């Protein structure tokens, strides 16, 4: 067997998020996070906040809450009890992953030395045999690997490995990777046909191991990941046998997304990773069916995942409550992770569409504009009580947001043998390695998502023949393209990629025009609580009405006329610069008084009478950044008005 | 201090459910369960099933699940571990309470000896000092009274006391009461200003102690109950400080029903009991405000209580999901208990209305027609997966239903100094003691709730001057009364009692005519998921549509026209004899195909087109007694059709 480290040094500067470059069953190769410089008005300020506020703030939280002390304690450098929850190591790892991706985008000597210090603290806590989990130290050593279902031991290991891979890819340093390899080897030695049976109740280690295999070339890690997914649904003593942790059936037989949403989506991500390496058809079939069930029965219009508070779980098909949507920020991030993997495999726009919807709505709502407060749940309606918090005792969401944002540049493009794929429209400059070894520069200029005009300009020292694949979002009916000012005459199908194959010369430019009309969407009839309600969208953004923009209006008395005419209003001074949309709405005349009417009353058999009110909607992702008040995504509509 | 036993022997045959006969601040006195013989078509078969099937079946369950063995174990007659949950004693006590009320209605030597055997088993498990809880025995003795918040120790004691009081009132025997008094005395000795501080996380003992005081005349038990309710909201170490167990604020300051619904409603019942004895104004104010909040913001149209699965808790104001309504059967029963206490205090029809609604819908749905299967949750919409179960590991609901049904005769009437109050319209013969010492017989003849005609005939050996108070349900607009065939000319206000004061002679009869029109109710606008939906009711019954009666119809495609004309159809062969209601409904033409349409789709800006379908609705309480299928209470309505 090859020595993993040597083989992989060449990849050091390839800071890819999920590195399918050599995966036999993947259609696309990711770009390095370092290769793409986002410079737009929408994301750049958020990523700057992530780098300058969120990441330092979360480091302080890890220090203040004893998460770092737990490592110092394990290595004998801190004299006190273990602090916090048994899975708290994972937050430090996710912070390291965020910091690593950030270093890939932007050198930062202070952050780099902080990262190395934390890695040193972690390394000191590792045992001779590679084991590393600060919860299972001292008096808890005998409990190691005894409660895989509950105690997140392999989950923490998975986050360590993912962070180490990110650190290696982002910085070229192997300081953290060596720790990860020792831990992974210990896991490989411990679990398997000849070792302990079972798998972690919270999937995570599966995708981490596959990524480690990609980073080191050591295929044992893929086999180990496969071993773990094969354990599910076997009703082994270490597993629950329940839908909660997707242990109700063998993974190859699963067809409905069930149970704890983050666990589910992490598991499916791991299975997708394994398929990219092994090409096992039964895995692909399961993953495809699960995705179909998710997208046609269980996903929120925001991309949010997980309907139920109890068990943080998916509900039944079409069970999508609004006020009590659980829609954990981590679940939305997990959906981005899964869709990204599927996109890299299958090169189909539906996955990029889902990724974009989730990113701009279900994920972005999870963090405040100031980068310091987080939602655990992201409901689609609220009375004004649900507010973001600076931290949680179970603090999975904050560093999960930080690592996704820090790695965002890596999600914009991919390459294939045919050429360059543009997934997301965000102004940036990208260095793109073509399959022939040539590197070109692509400049993307756009004010997306506020405007639909996208300009892509190619810079190259010599002409290059390749295809440019432009994603046409499914909602972009009427999109048009010009190439160097000439109208593109090929077919432009929403929900697919348009392939423009030609020889590209320096200065060639493509202009994509996406119609950003305000759209009203309704739900499938089986989503009962959205009956005769619509959601308002524009481009990838879901809109909502928030009380603060509509003072004195009872949001529960609003009705939209079927033919609402929405006006887009640029508000550069508001919330860092957004576009609101406004329309004349109807106000149920009998219902706008301060409501002391009974809970149930005889139905009045008469057509409703309305007054008129100017309604202002804001993008959903930015709600709850001002004074507390009611919020709604799904608004009643009257088809007869 | 009087010796309690002697003083109370005279009450032996007064099987009152909540005995306010001597409560200084109660307006009404209950009738004995033994005084009322229900002989109608609706309830009598259910009560017979309760007596002949449910009670024996639950005894077997208590035996089969080790609940009785736990008592034998505690007294050294069973050699094995404690079985089941720490609160399992309470199910045996509730079974004993059910059996006791049943004996009050109908002698049954076999049941009586079974009851005495169980009491003997329980008595043998009692300790010298009166302590009795089979969980805290042997190795767990040191844990006694150390975790009041979680371990239900006083809750179990409360159920013992309630059962013993019922047994004493029903049979005249003091065998069980003596055990209860010893336990209660131990509690009085243990808790209080000079003893342990704190209260039980699950209220129950409070109302039990007040009832024991009423049964024994020993006022210390009222003081002890008051001590327990005074502990709440004081943030003592033994309490949680959370809304979950109503410990977030002193009880006198509580104004919103919050937290675990059964705990809340048991607590308010206890507080109401204490007020009946002490007349403390602050308690009355709290209870009144809590009731108002409950009834105008948080109760389901079925009377169900508790919106959330997580914490089995009340949600926010107007948070009333349908599919995921928690609406525990025990919470509905607790609401009956609370409203009964309030009715006895205040003599106001609103409490009897709430009690009746809850009894006929939220409680009755909790048990199958065969008396052997139970709902824990009683949702108002379902996809067909929610089915009743024969038992639960936490089996609070089954014996709670059994004890309520067995005591139902006690809820029909009360007396006051003015005369006789008729709360519920159920055919029966009742022996009514008047304040002057005279006993009259009242025959109630009715086919309620299927028909609205009620005949009350007085039999008396000599004329009696008293008032007859007839409840006019709030929905009964247009009710009319005749007395011996003469039209009653006084005012008849729905939602109040009509007082008919006269000298009654043998054979005098009153005929009450309640219009049982089919009613369509809508929700307050703030109940968002009931937007533009109506519920169908007739008399006290909430109706629902169930798939089995509407084969091939997608229940999510149904729309009611605003002017629906409902036809009542007697179906004597169906489900023991019910009345269905039928109407021509609309079927959304585009929506009835097998639905493979996307989860979200562009809103079609056009008036809906409908086809017509004959829709059959059944009473909500009887759903899920046939083949599994979808069910809905709240149906879409189109005000323009």
Automatic annotation (TrEMBL), chains A, B:
Residues 518-636 form the Non-reducing end beta-L-arabinofuranosidase-like GH127 C-terminal domain. Residues 35-409 form the Non-reducing end beta-L-arabinofuranosidase-like GH127 catalytic domain. It comes from the Bacteria. InterPro entries: 6-hairpin_glycosidase_sf (IPR008928), Beta-AFase-like (IPR049174), Beta-AFase-like_GH127_C (IPR049049), Beta-AFase-like_GH127_cat (IPR012878), Beta-AFase-like_GH127_middle (IPR049046). One of its GO terms (biological process) is carbohydrate metabolic process. Signal peptide: none annotated. Residues 420-516 form the Non-reducing end beta-L-arabinofuranosidase-like GH127 middle domain. This is Glycoside hydrolase family 127 protein. It comes from Dictyobacter aurantiacus.
């Amino acid at each position: 067997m090859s020595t993993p480290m040597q083989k992989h040094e060449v990849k050091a500067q390839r800071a890819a998020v999920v590195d399918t470059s050599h995966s036999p069953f993947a259609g696309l190769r990711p770009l390095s996070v370092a290769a793409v410089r986002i410079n737009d008005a929408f994301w750049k300020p958020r990523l700057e906040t992530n780098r300058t506020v969120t990441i330092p703030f979360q480091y302080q939280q890890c220090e203040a809450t004893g998460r770092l002390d737990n490592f110092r304690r394990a290595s004998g450098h801190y004299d006190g009890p273990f602090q916090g929850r048994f899975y708290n190591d994972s937050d430090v790892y996710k912070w390291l992953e965020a910091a690593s991706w950030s270093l890939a985008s932007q050198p930062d000597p202070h952050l780099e030395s902080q990262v190395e210090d934390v890695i040193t603290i972690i390394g000191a806590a590792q045992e001779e045999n590679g084991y590393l989990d600060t919860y299972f130290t001292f008096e808890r050593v005998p409990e190691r690997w005894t409660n895989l279902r509950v105690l997140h031991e392999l989950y923490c290991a998975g986050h360590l490995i993912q962070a180490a891979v990110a650190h290696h890819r982002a910085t070229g340093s192997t300081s953290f990777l060596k720790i990860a390899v020792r831990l992974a080897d210990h896991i490989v030695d411990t679990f398997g046909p000849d070792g302990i049976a079972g798998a972690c109740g919270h999937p995570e280690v599966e995708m981490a191991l596959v990524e480690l295999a990609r980073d080191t070339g050591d295929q044992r890690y893929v086999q180990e990941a496969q071993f773990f997914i094969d354990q599910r649904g076997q009703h082994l003593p270490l597993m629950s046998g329940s839908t909660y942790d997707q242990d109700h059936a063998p993974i190859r037989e699963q067809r409905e997304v069930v149970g704890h949403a983050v666990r589910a989506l992490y598991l499916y991500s791991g299975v997708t990773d394994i398929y990219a390496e092994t090409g096992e058809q039964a895995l692909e079939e399961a993953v495809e069916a699960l995705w179909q069930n998710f997208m046609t029965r269980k996903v929120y219009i925001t991309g949010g995942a997980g309907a139920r508070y109890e068990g943080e779980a998916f509900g039944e098909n079409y069970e999508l409550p609004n006020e009590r949507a659980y829609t954990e920020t981590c679940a939305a991030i997990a959906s981005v992770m899964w869709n990204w993997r599927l996109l890299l495999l299958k090169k189909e726009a539906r996955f990029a569409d889902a990724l974009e919807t989730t990113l701009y709505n279900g994920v972005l709502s999870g963090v405040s504009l100031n980068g310091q407060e987080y939602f655990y749940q992201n409901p689609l309606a609220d009375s004004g009580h649900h507010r973001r918090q600076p931290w949680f005792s179970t603090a999975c969401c904050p560093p999960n947001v930080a690592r996704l944002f820090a790695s965002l540049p890596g999600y914009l493009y991919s390459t294939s043998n045919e050429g360059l794929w543009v997934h997301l429209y965000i102004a940036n400059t990208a260095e793109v390695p073509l399959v022939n070894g040539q590197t070109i520069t692509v400049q993307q200029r756009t004010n997306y998502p506020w405007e639909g005009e996208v300009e892509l300009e190619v810079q190259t020292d010599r002409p290059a023949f390749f295809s440019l694949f432009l994603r046409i979002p499914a909602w972009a009916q009427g999109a048009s393209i010009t190439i160097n000012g000439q109208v593109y005459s090929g077919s432009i199908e929403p929900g697919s990629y348009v392939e423009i194959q030609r020889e590209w010369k320096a200065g060639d430019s493509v202009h994509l025009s996406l119609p950003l009309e305000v759209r009203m969407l309704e739900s499938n009839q089986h989503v009962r609580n959205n009956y005769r309600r619509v959601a308002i969208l524009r481009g990838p953004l879901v809109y909502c009405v928030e009380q603060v923009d509509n003072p004195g209006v009872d949001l529960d008395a609003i009705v939209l006329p079927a033919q609402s005419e929405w006006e887009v209003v640029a508000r550069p001074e508001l919330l860092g610069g957004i576009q609101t949309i406004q329309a004349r709405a109807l106000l149920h005349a009998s219902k706008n008084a301060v409501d002391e009417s009974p809970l149930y009353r005889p139905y009045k058999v008469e057509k409703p009478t309305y007054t008129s009110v100017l309604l202002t909607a804001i993008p959903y992702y930015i709600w709850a950044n001002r004074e507390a008040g009611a919020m709604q995504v799904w608004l009643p509509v009257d088809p007869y008005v």
